[in-house]
What we know:
Layout lengths: L3 H15 L4 E6 L12 H5 L4 E7 L2 E6 L3 E6 L5 E5 L11 E7 L4 E5 L6 E6 L23 H8 L6 H5 L10 H11 L13 H19 L44 E5 L2 E5 L6
Antiparallel strand pairs: 1-6, 2-3, 3-4, 4-8, 5-7, 6-7, 9-10
The chain binds a DNA duplex through helix 5.
Amino acid sequence: MPELPEVEAVMRRLAPRLQGRRIARATVARADLRRMLPPRFAERLGGTRVTGLGRRAKYLLMRLDSGESMLIHLGMSGRMVLRPPGANAPPPVHEHVTLLTDDGWAAGFVDPRRFGSIDLVPTAAEETQGPLAGLGPEPLGDGFDAATLSAALAGRRSAIKVALLDQHLVAGIGNIYASEALHRAGISPLRAAMTVAGAPAGLLVEAIRATLTEAIAASGSSLRDHVLPDGGHGCFQQAFRVYGREGLPCPACAPGTCPGIRRIVQAGRSTFYCPRAQR
DNA sequence: ATACGCCCCTGGTGGC
DNA sequence: TGCCACCAGGGGCGTA
C-alpha cells in the first residue's frame, strides 16, 4: 500500500490520536522485521511523550520527548491500526509492535511480509543519521523543481520510470505513482532518463506534484487491504489513468483512438503506459 | 557512481 | 478440494 500519499494519509489519521500522548507501554511480538528492531526498543519508548508526527518520503516520523524519533517504514504490506480503549478483540495477526497510550488507545504496526522497518534515531540528527540520510528531495517541497530534476537525470542511462523509483533522486514515489505521473506528463516510461532533462523535466515535475497532491486529497490508494489506521481506505485507485488497467483505453487519447494501455516489466516491476499518449 | 539481478516474506488469485 | 505458478504498494546487497 504505501507510497508517499498513503503514508501521508496514515500520518494524518494517526496524529490526532497520538499527538501529545504518552506511550505508557510498548510491546514487541517479533523484532525481526526487514531490520532487527533497535536494541532495548520497548524500554526506550516506554514513558515517552509523542511531541509530533511527520512524514519524510515513505517514512512515518514520530518525535518523542526523549530526544529520539521513531522512523516507521511500512514496506509493501505494512499498516498502522488504532484500537480504542476497552477493545477486547485480540490484535490482528502480524501485529509486531504495539504502542499503548496513556489514554487507553493502542496503535499497532502490522506487516505480514515484514518488509517494513522501525528505527530510532536522535531527532536532532534525523535527516543525517539513519535511513533518511541521502534521500532525495521531497517532491512536494521547495527543493524539487525542473532544475534539480534535470540535474539529477543528467547522465542517467536507465529508463525514466526506473529512475523515478530511485529514492536518492526524488523521495517518495513508488511503482503506482511513477506510472501515473509519467502518463500525466505524456512521457514514455521507456525513455532514457537523460533525455528527460531540460524542458520535459518541468512537465514531469508538475505532473508528479499534481498526481501526488490529488492522491493525498483522496487519502491515497487502497488496492487490496484497508490502509488507514481507523479501518478506512483511500479512493485514489478510482482515478488511476493507467496503473492496473492493461488493455483499457487511456484517458488522454480521443475516444476510439487509444491502442490500449500496455503492461511491461522494468527492473522487475510492472509499468503501465499508453504507447500513443506517451512519447 | 551506475546498473542489474536476486533476495527478503506472506498472502491472494486464477488455472488445471 | 488441492496444488502450483504468478503477482503484489519496497528496498538493500553483491556484482560488474
